[in-house]
Amino acid sequence: YNLLNLKEILENNRPKFLQERRFQLIHSVSSRAIARKFGGDLAAGKPHTDKLPEPVKHTARECYVGFHSYGSFNLFAQRGAVSGSHVDWLNGTWARCVTGLKAWPVMTDLSSEEMETYKKERKDGGGDMYLPTKGRFKMVVLEPQDTLIMPPGTIVVHAPITVEDSLMDGGMFWDEKNLLPTLRNILDVARNPSISNEIVPRQFAEVMDELEAWVKKDTQRFADAAE
After folding, report:
1. Rg over CA atoms, the chain
2. How distant, in Å, are the alpha carbons of 51, 58, 92, 145, 160 from that of 47?
3. What is the dihedral of CA 162, 83, 93, 35, to 10 degrees?
4. In terms of C-beta density within 10 A (0-12 exposed, 13-18 middle, 19 or more buried), how is residue 97 classed?
5. 118 contacts 195 by C-beta, under 8 angstroms
6. CA–CA distance, 102 with 161 (Å, rounded to integer)
7. What's the pLDDT tens digit per position in 110-149?
């Protein structure tokens, strides 16, 4: 078994750096999109709260919980489980080993030629048989309490291998001060969906509309990202 995007049930504290405002953008823009969609008091609290009228509860769950949930999730895999090489579509991920042992091959700083080759081989062969130049992948071994950070704005090809039954927590995040490279990478994944192992939630376009409006309204906050 290799279970991804499980509901967050662990009560661990998130990595300390994520407490900084600049790294809470996914949560913030998702909440803003919900508020714009439903307005006023209906958007307060969790979108699936029982306090919402039934039509709104259903619509909120359908349209927004998917994107919002990318901010935190749990992972469980049994020994021997392998994920084919891929890129996380939201382009910014942290993953922490809680129990077990995880090997995390990563490839970064891809040249344009390497990226085009990777896109082609993922599209033609599903990615599982992708073979880069010898030594190109670097292996990161995660033991309990180790945290791996794949920063937003950077393409990180990875293919996790479960060495021992492993439970992990993690999430995706953006950096307000490094937004343009992140969005460029997301666009690249959107144009080449085979390089990721995830689908884009239906509400992504609405979230992007909200982000665009926010950036235009508060240009100073995103000044570094606009350069």
Report:
1. 18
2. 9, 9, 24, 31, 32
3. -120
4. buried
5. yes
6. 6
7. 999 999 988 888 887 655 567 778 888 999 999 999 999 9
Q: Cβ(203)–Cβ(64) under 8 Å?
A: yes
| Mean pLDDT across 18-37 | 86
**In 36-92, beta strands by DSSP E:** 73-77
Q: What are 25's two structure tokens?
A: 């953008």
Per DSSP, the three-state class of 167 is strand
Tokens matching residue 68: 């919002």
- In degrees rounded to 5, what are phi and psi of residue 63? -95, -25
- Size (the chain), residues: 227
Round to whole Å and give the CA distance between 218 and 13.
Answer: 30
The residue with greater pLDDT, 120 or 203, is 120
Q: How confident is the model at residue 11 (pLDDT cuts 50, 70, 90)?
A: confident
Q: How far is CA 189 from CA 14, 181, 192, in A?
A: 27, 12, 5
DSSP 115: H
What average pLDDT does the segment 98-118 reach? 93
This model's pTM is above 0.90: no
User: What's phi and psi for 191, nearest 5 deg?
Assistant: -80, -20
Read off the tokens for 193. 């969906």
Q: For 102-141, b where at least 16 C-beta lie within 10 A, e where not — what string?
A: bebbbbeebeeebbeebbebbeeeebeebebeeeebeeee
Question: Residues near 209 by Cβ (< 8 Å), separated by ≥ 6?
Answer: 33
Residue type, 221: R
